[in-house]
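For consistency, the fold was encoded as tokens, as this record shows:
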Amino acid sequence: MSLSQKRKLTLEVEKQFEVATFPFLFKISLNNNFQVVTLTISFDYTLRPLNMKNFNEKRLPEKQFEFMHEIEGVFLQEIRAYFSGKSPYPNPPHALNCSDFSKRVLTALRLIPPGEVVTYQELAEEMGLKNGARAIGQALAKNPLPLIYPCHRVVSKSGLGGYSQGKLLKYLLLLLEKRFKF
């Protein structure tokens, strides 16, 4: 990603909030069109009701703040559908801000059935890149929207491989997906 693209992304990412649903904490950034542009997943073992945290509602006019609550609802519906086995991946309104190559790689991830895995090399070969495993891995490492573009379904030929959200979460997501028939 070029410096001008990073600056543009920085300018676009103005609305950030967190959604907690045990045991996960989702950190979400929206662009000016209220599309998800980055998503981070972590474990949060605090029991609390679903809510938006750390969001300064005074930064937005009341109408936009209400819209943010609608987006939170849509996001949670998508997450619940995924975690209950009703959807192969969450698909809230989102914008994919990355290179054309990365978009091509991330789009290919949606063709991998839930609960199944491919190696970096297999994905590269399916995309016509005979020696492209490393390039595939680099694109996946920069995936701004894990789960939405399910990079956890790509593994190393010698094991689980990496995951930007942590190997434990990658392993648990694959186990979860094995339970459901999509």
Observations:
- Residues 62-83 form the longest helix (22 residues).
- The first strand starts at residue 15 and ends at 21.
